[in-house]
Amino acid sequence: MIYQTDLKLGQEIEIVKEFLENEAHRYQGKLSWKCFVDSEVDTELVVPRSLIQTFAEKAITYGLIQNGEGGRIEISVYKTELGVLAMVTDNGIVDGQTSSVHQHQKEKLICLDEYLRLFNSRNHHSISYSMLGCSQGYIGASGSRVLITIQN
């Protein structure tokens, strides 16, 4: 199969589930996860490959594993009035709570930003994301949440 740069949302979600299952096995019980997809979501929407997985990887590598205790990741995908909202939530360390510089992760996000700019310029829907610390109203005192918006 030729490498696809874009996938259907349903395919991306299945890839992320497989990734999280493998990571949970790799970290031997230190990682738990769940994924919820609203039945109203159009899983045929075309999205960039690794759109959700990028943030799941970030949560594991820079949030959950660095705290040494493991943790959980929740992925939720909902239909909204404007399109689709995907949320990746973890209970790990929030960026800025660690002293190490995550240059590789910053480079990945710069690449994702550029890829989204190109993707949005050639598709009829627009994708954006925002990253929040859980101290901004989510699941307790630690962790982060990424909101990925796919507008029709």
CATH architecture descriptor:
2-Layer Sandwich
Query: Between the first and last Cα atoms, what is the distance in angstroms?
Result: 29 Å
- Average pLDDT works out at 83
Overall 3D geometry?
A: globular
Oligomer: single chain
Tally of discrete structural domains: 1
CATH superfamily: Histidine kinase-like ATPase, C-terminal domain
Order of helices and strands: EHEEHEEHEE
Number of strands: 7
User: What radius of gyration results from the CA coordinates?
Assistant: 15 Å
Description:
The chain has 152 residues and is α+β, with helices and mostly antiparallel strands. It has a single domain, classed as Heat Shock Protein 90. Helices cover 34% and strands 30% of the residues. The protein is built from three helices and seven strands. It has helices at 9-26, 51-64, 103-121, and strands at residues 6-8, 31-37, 46-48, 71-79, 83-90, 126-133, 144-151. Strands 2-4-5-7-6 form a five-stranded mixed beta sheet, with helices on one face. The protein has a two-stranded antiparallel ribbon with strand order 1-3. A hairpin with a 3-residue loop joins strand 4 and strand 5 (83-90). Helix 1 packs parallel to helix 2. The chain starts with 5 loop residues before the first strand and ends with a strand.
Features of this protein?
alpha+beta, five-stranded mixed β-sheet, 30% strand
Secondary structure layout:
Layout: E1 6-8, H1 9-26, E2 31-37, E3 46-48, H2 51-64, E4 71-79, E5 83-90, H3 103-121, E6 126-133, E7 144-151
Helix pairs in contact: 1-2
